[in-house]
Amino acid sequence: MSSSWEQLFFQILLLVVFCRHINTKTPGPTPPPLVSINSPLPTDIRSVVLKGESHTESVELLNPVNLTLECTWTGNQNKLPNITGFWRKDGDEVENSRLTVQLENDQYNLKRVFSIISEENLGNYSCMFESEAKIDFVLAAPHMHEVRDKPIVSYVGDSVVIVCKMEETKPKPSTWNWYKANGTDKEQIFTAAEPLRYEIKNDERKTKLVVYNLTEADGGLYYCGAVYAINTTMGLVELKVINFTEPLKPFIAITVEVIVLVVAIMFYERYQSKKNYTAGKGMNDQTNTLTQGENNEPEEGSSMRQRKV
Amino acid sequence: MAPATATKLGYTPPDGGWGWAVVFGAFISIGFSYAFPKSLTIYFKEIQEYFFVSYSEIAWLSSVMLASMYAGGPVSSLLVNRYGSRPVVMVGGLMVSTGMILASFGRTIVHLYLCVGVIGGLGLAFNLQPALTIIGTYFQVKRPLANGLAMTGSPVVLFTLAPLNQFLFDSFGWRGSFLILGSIVLNCCVAGALMRPVNKNSRSQGCVHKIIDPTLFKHRGFLIYLIGNVVMFFGFFAPVVFLAPYAKHQGIDEYSAAFLLSIFALVDMFIRPATGFIGNTKWIRPRIQYFFSFAVSYNGVCHLICPLLPGYVGLVVYAIFFGLAFGMLSALLFEVLMDLVGAHRFSSAVGLVTIIECGPVLLGPPLSGALVDIFGEYKYMYYACGVFMLVPGIFFFIMHYFNYKKLDEERRQTVALEMRTCDEAWMKHSESNFPEGLI
């Protein structure tokens, strides 16, 4: 009697283990991740008509999408009835994309739907007609153009504001992130971790990173990331932190130059008036010498009291 | 007109010699006075971000500086009348320098308003007036040329400061740049050192320098100048301020728009000494007020035509013609005042003129900006500026025609009489103020 209970117990145990085993093992290859499991991806279409040999089209994407790319080619001199068309992504041929394209209404037409879900799906997609005509579609999230290319300079102990802006003509990002470069890596800056050192102020199209109490180590590359559903685009800003003694050097140099010049001019004047005092001692009639020549005019000065101008 | 003023001075100005060194000093002082406030705008964006202020709050810095510079005019005149040009310019240079050095340590935007705006602006006023005044003491025959050369300082210094400021900003940020600019403006002290007081013949001093001269308001020529200038200044600076924005509004890219300003500045630079030279010729000099009236009217015509010129080429043509007009007017602006009131009253006159011009100079650009905002386009602003310059131009032509007639009449009657009265006044004055006497 106990052995049948043991057997049942053992079978139930096996069943439970087996079922668990079934549930933890996935049967086939991992299906591509979907942004939202409940609703399907939106669709969009981009069409280009090519008259020459090649054309590049920029496609700005914000969200994951099922993107249809359509290429139309007017053909060359020999309008062959059938040509080969295929697609490339970032230079590599897309599998199973080779088709025979027929001449319709004096044009060749190639169309394909791509699932653009995340960063790996962005890039350069090309439709090729034989090896003669090419249309490039550059798929990317909006890029910032107004980023300062020269370094921002600030001082040890001072604070600095680094700004990144997305132009009015581009769509606004959902949020902004800031990163500091660490060798070849980027480390995200979290203000909660160091509230006395960093502050991030976000507007819709503008983001400001404030760094307080700068040290020389704070210098380097900073990245502002405009976050879109599809990808985060980066802008690069360089920060240079210098000591206050740096501008002091040219300051002192120029001040010295000024002092030297002023003293030189004063001495020259003193020298000239001394020279003319001895020369002018013998002169009685100042009126005559006044009208004589321009050079005599300042030389007269010594013997007379300088009147205010 | 010219000979009468010379005898009023009571001595023969050197018209050369050390005078050319003085012109160079004036060139530097005038250059910094006009160009320094304009060149600081390069730092505005960073300062605006640093202090978390709005664009209009940072633009206030320029306005405070300009207001101080113009309001400081009478104070400057007073000091020049009392102490002469040299000490005032040197103090002015030290003031601007101190202002900039203090500003480089600033912690609030108000700190900047005070240091750069008030102290800096006042220091620049102490450079401008004395520089203009001293030219009148060194030059008579070649005065228009000397004035034209000295006024060339403004575009030349601006041309130098603009890229220099950009370089300083890229290398040192705004704080370090302000510190270094503090030392650069000290060169105004060098300019002041060059402004050696001119030697005056002891024989007769001419009319005494009054400390403040309210009788100027009864002076016909002065009144014509004042009234015309007040109206004119409403439309004088706005077209320069809006040249680049207007170009960008037409769809022209930023670099080409900036290039327009460079063309304008380059033409301005060369036309100023040329105008001085032309004003000095024997055909123009006796009737130089007409030359000035022409310059003012020409500015007006330029602005009226501007909106009709199409495309970038049209704007380049406008920039060239406007550069010519602006330069001509600037070169003659103070020369004609000297011509009207005489070198010995010039200091007081220019002080009064600058403080009264303060209003239109400060109101002009914002009012023009308001016109652009209301109508959404620039052409009405240009028409308005054109009218504000053409009307005074015509006013000047008419009024000076009558003025010249009256002056010729008066000259015939009163020259001798004035000489005698002046000698008496000087005798009285010299006894009370200069007991040692001179001879």
Automatic annotation (TrEMBL), chain A:
Keywords: Disulfide bond, Glycoprotein, Immunoglobulin domain, Membrane, Signal, Transmembrane, Transmembrane helix. It is a single-pass type I membrane protein. One of its GO terms (cellular component) is cell-cell junction. Residues 284-295 have a biased composition (Polar residues). It is found in: Membrane. The chain crosses the membrane at residues 250-268. PROSITE patterns: IG_LIKE. Residues 278-309 are annotated as: Disordered. GO terms for molecular function: cell adhesion molecule binding. One of its GO terms (biological process) is cell-cell adhesion. Residues 1-24 form the signal peptide. It holds the Pfam family Ig_3. Residues 33-127, 142-243 form the Ig-like domain. The keyword Membrane applies. PANTHER family: NEPHRIN, V-SET AND IMMUNOGLOBULIN DOMAIN-CONTAINING PROTEIN 10-LIKE 2. This is Embigin. It comes from Sander lucioperca. The gene is emb.
Automatic annotation (TrEMBL), chain B:
It catalyses: 3-methyl-2-oxobutanoate(out) + H(+)(out) = 3-methyl-2-oxobutanoate(in) + H(+)(in); 4-methyl-2-oxopentanoate(out) + H(+)(out) = 4-methyl-2-oxopentanoate(in) + H(+)(in). It comes from the Eukaryota. Pfam families: MFS_1 (PF07690). It is a multi-pass membrane protein. Residues 19-404 form the Major facilitator superfamily (MFS) profile domain. Keywords: Cell membrane, Membrane, Symport, Transmembrane, Transmembrane helix, Transport. One of its GO terms (cellular component) is basolateral plasma membrane. GO terms for molecular function: monocarboxylic acid transmembrane transporter activity; symporter activity. It is found in: Basolateral cell membrane. The chain crosses the membrane at residues 18-37, 58-80, 100-124, 176-195, 222-244, 256-278, 290-310, 316-337, 349-368, 380-402. Belongs to the major facilitator superfamily. Monocarboxylate porter (TC 2.A.1.13) family. PANTHER family: MAJOR FACILITATOR SUPERFAMILY (MFS) PROFILE DOMAIN-CONTAINING PROTEIN, MONOCARBOXYLATE TRANSPORTER. This is Solute carrier family 16 member 7. It comes from Sander lucioperca. The lineage of its organism: Eukaryota, Metazoa, Chordata, Craniata, Vertebrata. The gene is LOC116043489.
